[in-house]
Automatic annotation (TrEMBL):
Ranges for domain Homoserine dehydrogenase catalytic: 129-307
Gene Ontology biological process terms from the UniProt entry: methionine biosynthetic process; threonine biosynthetic process
Domain of life: Bacteria
InterPro entries referenced in this protein's UniProt entry, alphabetically: Asp/hSer_DH_NAD-bd (IPR005106), HDH_cat (IPR001342), HDH_CS (IPR019811), NAD(P)-bd_dom_sf (IPR036291)
Recorded metabolic or biological pathway in which this protein acts: Amino-acid biosynthesis; L-threonine biosynthesis; L-threonine from L-aspartate: step 3/5; Amino-acid biosynthesis; L-methionine biosynthesis via de novo pathway; L-homoserine from L-aspartate: step 3/3
SUPFAM superfamilies: Glyceraldehyde-3-phosphate dehydrogenase-like, C-terminal domain (SSF55347), NAD(P)-binding Rossmann-fold domains (SSF51735)
Protein's name according to its UniProt entry: Homoserine dehydrogenase
Catalysis: reaction(s): L-homoserine + NADP(+) = L-aspartate 4-semialdehyde + NADPH + H(+)
Coiled-coil segments on the chain, per record: none
Length: 419
């Protein structure tokens, strides 16, 4: 039955985000929750059982529902739900960055063909309104760079390593106990989650639909106290930074890398589970947004904002997308030739691949591991990164102004403390 008092929403998922949205909606008397679709019939719920269904079709085919919120943890099922809703010209909001980033072209095409709407602010940095900012405010202004700390779990771990001198495993266990990291943390600490988010940012900020293999990606899972101490001796901190940057040749450079940041960067001060995004716009200059990138209520708030906007008729326009005469999306040229300066520490130096370094300084070989600072073209790094990762290496980008000599000196300075 269609409610007389307001709009009706069907919710998929009643976990961290679904419950957060449900709480937040209690403040909105104009929106009635029709039903909530979940998977596990045995699970104890905070609401009576008549609120739930276990069949997605009960929601998707209910004509009395005005819009849907897709907040489940299963990307394959999420895609089926969003696809069906958009194919029927319906409105749906989602928080699933993996599903959306991997299927963006199709999901945009479905909206164009059937007139439906998909919004997904909650998928990128939780409560930070980055997509709406890129769409509505920077829709016309050329952007030079959007980069940031986009994954709260890995930032929590890195903050703990930095502040408390504990091991990676201890920090991860703390993050899991507090609910900041999943039981399987691979998506977060491996940099995949940040990759999904920077892909969505690249679409809205630069009109680029990118494939995962086009992005230089390394995670934090092999970081040791030695790496943290080295960063501190240099006066910096290691943060997992995702970057989409338009170089002067108009080519887009994309990466997700542990990165040495210094106190002159806003990212240095983004701590624990917080996220931070910096924008460089041609005319507006630099801006920085910081906030809660995850969590039940912050993410529920972002979903609510999308729901309200969608009900008011808001759609993404993808203002930076460019089309050819056949109305096909023009690809954005990707950077391959610029140079990356990286620090690598591996405990399996015997398996280090022969990379085409432009400059290379090797040190730390007196221990049962090897450290190096090298510069390499982005194209070569992308090519050899899988082989480098096989050596269980910790890889971090260091700014061009930090010399290999400074890194070597800093490593000996802190050696005693972490030996
Ligand atoms: N957690 C965050 O802070 C956060 C932030 C931003 C974005 N997100 C995204 O939001 C989405 C939900 O995350 P979450 O943290 O809320 O997950 P969660 O706490 O694990 O909850 C997942 C919910 O999805 C339901 N579900 C899973 N597979 C289903 C299926 N096949 N059919 C129907 N329901 C299904 C589960 O049902 P049962 O209750 O029956 O198990 C559960 O209610 C994910 O895409 C995540 O990436 C999360």
């Amino acid at each position: 039955m269609k409610s007389k008092s307001g709009k009706r929403i069907g919710i998929f998922g009643f976990g961290c985000v679904g419950q957060g949205l449900h709480d937040v909606l209690q403040d909105n008397p104009h929106l009635n929750v029709a039903r909530i679709c979940v998977r596990d019939r045995e699970k104890l719920r905070t609401l009576p059982s008549h609120h739930f269904t276990y069949d997605p079709q009960e929601l998707l085919q209910d004509e009395s529902i005005d819009l849907f919120a897709e907040l489940i943890s299963d990307p394959e099922e999420a895609l089926l739900i969003v696809r069906q809703a958009l194919s029927a010209g319906k409105t749906i909001v989602s928080a699933n960055k993996k599903m959306i980033s991997e299927n963006l072209s199709e999901l945009v095409a479905l909206q164009q063909e059937f007139g439906g709407t998909l919004l997904y602010e909650a998928a990128v940095c939780g409560s930070i309104p980055i997509l709406r900012t890129l769409e509505a405010y920077y829709g016309n202004e050329p952007l030079q760079e959007v980069s940031g700390i986009l994954n709260g779990s890995s930032n929590y771990i890195l903050t703990k390593l930095d502040a408390e001198g504990i091991s990676y495993d201890e920090a991860l266990a703390q993050a899991q106990a507090l609910g900041f990291a999943e039981a399987d943390p691979t998506l977060d600490v491996g940099g995949y989650d940040a990759l999904h988010k920077i892909s969505l940012i690249a679409a809205h900020a630069f009109g680029a639909v990118i494939k995962p293999e086009q992005v230089v990606r390394a995670g934090i899972q092999h970081i040791s106290r030695r790496d943290v101490a080295l960063a501190q001796a240099l006066g910096g901190r290691i943060r997992l930074v995702a970057t989409a940057k338009l170089n002067q040749n108009n080519r887009l450079a994309l990466q997700v890398l542990p990165t040495l940041v210094f106190p002159d960067s806003e990212l240095y001060y983004v701590e624990a589970e917080f996220n931070g995004v910096q924008l460089q716009a041609r005319y507006a200059g630099d801006q920085f947004l910081k906030g809660r990138g995850a969590g039940s209520h912050p993410t529920g708030s972002a979903v609510w904002a999308d729901v309200s906007a969608a009900l008011a008729g808001y759609k993404y326009t993808y203002p930076k997308f460019r089309y050819n005469d056949e109305e096909q999306l023009k690809p954005v040229a990707l950077e391959e030739e610029d140079e990356l300066k990286v620090y690598v520490r591996t405990t399996m130096p015997e398996f280090l691949p022969e990379l085409p370094w432009r400059e290379l300084t090797v040190f730390g070989t007196e221990r049962r591991e090897t450290q190096l600072v090298g510069t390499i073209s982005r194209k070569d790094f992308l090519l050899y990164l899988p082989a480098l990762k096989q050596t269980i290496a910790f890889i971090a980008q260091i700014p061009a102004h930090v010399s290999a000599e400074q890194v070597v000196n800093a490593s000996y300075l802190k050696l005693e403390e972490v030996a």
